[in-house]
Amino acid sequence: MKSLTPVLLLALGLITGSTAAPLEERDVQTVHLTFHGGPAEYSLAFPADGNVYATNSSIAISIIDAPDFLALTQCTFITSGEKTLASTITAQGLTQILVGPPQPITGVSCVGSCIYTYGDCYRNGQFLGQCCNGFCAANKCRPWVSPY
Ligand SMILES: *[C@@H]1O[C@H](CO)[C@@H](O)[C@H](O)[C@H]1NC(C)=O
């Protein structure tokens, strides 16, 4: 039987409004994003723990590189204006989020998980999860474009 302690800690965190530590740290993936606005860019690396991470940048962003996370569906990008997000894949096989109209992104939060390239997406006939930046074939996550 599972210990109740983490559940109680989470409940207390919710009651006090503090940011509770994730229950299973080992399962929290690190998200790497690179934000592009014209010739300017910045990169962030942060845990997919549901917390909001400030970008501290006022650059108007039009493209976000998402090499290792399902950012379109599993991340929230905070802006002051209305926006439409779409996803595309570059000729090099990199997943990018397109932001329209371009605008500053003040913070980002991500939650969940995905399978890294060449990780198992199926094992013993069981689906293990969506690929972060590619597709599932022959039980493994494959890059969108073959490097060979
Ligand atoms: C943004 O600023 C806050 C407060 O100074 C700091 O904790 C945080 O690390 C900064 N984030 C980045 C991406 O520099």
From TrEMBL:
Keywords: Signal. Residues 1-20 form the signal peptide. It comes from the Eukaryota. This is SSCRP protein.
